[in-house]
Specification:
This protein has 454 residues and is an alpha/beta fold. It contains twelve helices and 17 strands. The protein starts with a helix and ends in a 23-residue tail after the last strand. InterPro entries: DUF4015, GH.
Amino acid sequence: MSVKGYKNICAWLLAALLLVSGNAAAYSGMVVDALTCNPIPGAFVTLGDSVVRTARDGHFQISGQGTVLGLRAYGYRRREVPVGDLKEDETLSLAPFKPKALYLSSYGAANTRLRESALDIIGKTDLNAVVIDVKSDRGMIAYKTDVPLATEIGAQKMITIKHIHRLMDDLHQEGIYTIARIVVFKDNVLALARPDLAVRTAGGAIWRDREGLAWTDPFSKQVWDYNIDVAVAAAKDGFDEIQFDYVRFPDAKGLMFSEPNTRQNRVAAITGFLADARKRLIPYNVFLSADIFGYVIWNLNDTGIGQNLEEMAQQVDYISPMLYPSGFQYGIPGYPNPVLHPHQIVYLSLRKAEERTGLPPVRFRPWLQAFRDYAFGGQPFGGKEIATQIDAAQTFGSDGWMLWNPRNVYTTAGLPSKSGMVTTIREGHLSNPGGIGTGICSRNTPEKMTHLAR
C-alpha cells in the first residue's frame, strides 16, 4: 500500500470515529470583559468533559460533546451559553464580580427568620453572596440528594432544606452568588457507619476530636469519591461554587491511617483529593475553593495536617484562608496580640500568601471574623473590627471576602453600603446602574441569557 493510500485510510477512520462519537463538535471564539470589552486571558471554557483556557488575546478553540458551553474566569461571574446560540468565532462576555458573603448553616438557610434577616442585610449593603452548608461539620447533608451512600449511612435523616431548587432559584433571582460548603474529612456519620473508613487511635479505637466527633481517613479513595459525589450533586443543583472545608488531616498526634502518616503522604492525599474533585466537576462549570488554616500561610511545612499552600493553590480556583484574629493564638511576626490588630492580621497574611505562591490577589478570598473573640479576653467583634478586616481584604485586592458567625447572627454594622456601580445578575440580565461601561461587546452578551445566573 502506498503512503498516500495509507493516509487516506487513516483520514477515513478518523472521520468515522468522529461520527460514531455522537454530538462531538468544535467551537471557537473570544472571551471578553463585559464592562471594558477587553479580552480575558486564561478564562476556562468547558464543553462536557472537555476544558480549555483562553489565550492571551482571549481566543479559544474547543471540541467535545454537550449542549452548553461553560465560561468562567477568576474575578468574574460564571456563564453558560447554549451551543445552538453560538455563531462562528463568537465574542462572549463575562461580568466582573467579587463575592462578599455571609455564612449560613443548613439550619440558618432553612430557618425563615435567620434567612430573611441575612437577605435583608444583603439588600441593604454591598453583600452579594451566601455560603450555605451542604454537608455540615457533623456529616449531615442538608437536603435530599441522589448520592446512594448518603442514604445508606443515614446522612440525610434530618433534612433541613426541603426545596433546594426553589432556594437556588430565589437566591439567583436576587443576583446572589451561591457557595456550597462541604465539610470533607471531619465526618462523624460516615466514620461511625463505616468504621473501616475511620481514623483510629494507636490502640485501634475510633478516634474522636475535642467535640467528640469522628473523622474519616483522608487517604481513602472511597471517602474521596463520596465527598466528590456530594459536590457534583450540589453543582447539579445550581450552586455557583463548591467550597471544601476540613480538607485536611486531624491536628492530633499518634493517629492511625491506612497509609504512613508522613508529610509527603499527607500533602499528596489532600492535593490528590482536590485534583480528583476538580476533574469530576469540569462538566458543571463551577468554581472550586478550599478553606485553609490561617497559619498554613505562615508555615513552610504542611502544619501537620497536609495543607501545603503552594500545592493546594494549583488545584483550586480560590484559596480561602481563615484569617480570624482569634485563631492566631501565637500572633504573627510583629503582632503578638492579633485581636488588637485585625487589619494587619488579614492584610499581612494575604500578602504572605501572594508572595509565597506568586498568584495574583484575585486567587484569594479570606474568611473574616464576625463573632466574639474566644482566645484573648473575649472582646466583641463588632462593626469596627469587621470594617477594618474588610478594608484589609479590599486593600489587598482579594476576590471578595466572607463573614463567619456560627450562629448566623449578623448586622449591617461595619459593612459597606451598596456601591455606585453594581454588577449583578437578575433574571438573566447584566445590571449596571452606575453607568460605567455598556457591557455590550458583541451580539452574545449576558443580556437575555437564561443560564447566566446558574
